[in-house]
Amino acid sequence: MYLKTKAIITKIRDFSENDLLLELFTLESGKVTVIAKGAKNAKSRISGAANLFVYGEFDLYMGKKWNRINSLEIIESFYPLREDIEKLSYGSYFLELTNASIVKNKSDQELFALLLKTLDALKSADPLMLKIVFEFKLMESIGFIPRVFECAKCSSPLEKNIGFNIEYGGCLCHRCNNPKSMNISIKILKILQYFANNDFYDIMEIDIHITFLKKIDIILFKYLSYYLEKNNFKSLKFLNLFKED
Ligand SMILES: [Zn+2]
Prior knowledge:
- The chain has 245 residues and is an alpha+beta fold.
- The longest helix has 19 residues, at 210-228.
- Strand 4 and strand 5 (67-76) form a beta hairpin.
- It has helices at residues 79-82, 85-101, 109-121, 127-141, 186-197, 200-205, 210-228, 234-243, and strands spanning 2-14, 20-26, 30-36, 55-62, 67-76, 162-165, 170-172, 182-184.
- 39% of the residues lie in helices and 22% in strands.
- It is built from eight helices and eight strands; from the N terminus they run βββββααααβββαααα.
- The chain binds zinc ion.
- Zinc ion binds next to loops.
């Protein structure tokens, strides 16, 4: 069986002396693992194209045991993301997070579009801002948007002493708030509500103070780790080195 689809290369592993194993996020069929034959041979046509972030039109042969690439036409190589260590680290995290959210044989066009927009914005946008927007919109697209407009337990309005509670999936009012919540200010609440109400590009237009960015970064990471059941992101270990200074 053959599959012609747009896809983004999200992970690259060694397979054999000459071949690489690629994880693809395909537009048509979600997560697909393919062999890139001869990709380690500098002379092969595919070696220049088999790079992380590469977005292209793929012709795939889908075998019973293995899938392989017949041909690949690059649409966007995202070369600048591989040339800058900080962009590479953030970009790798976006791919890792995507890989934790997609499955085989299930297309997710909204997340596909979000990842493309995010990789494109990473060329020039503030990476921490981009990280929290991507995390929020990714959770939204896979059906885990946090509840930020009313209490996640009793549905009362959120007025004062608001808590963000992971297990309840969002904000708790002052009556329902409990010690397991992270307390958040009205300002943080308004930012989260803005994220929920607006699209990617509108959110990326606003300026958010670094203090708020850091706080939201912590909240959203705890939130997504809990719902994706994953907190050991390899790319983050490297990113945390940048945070030290
Ligand atoms: Zn409540």
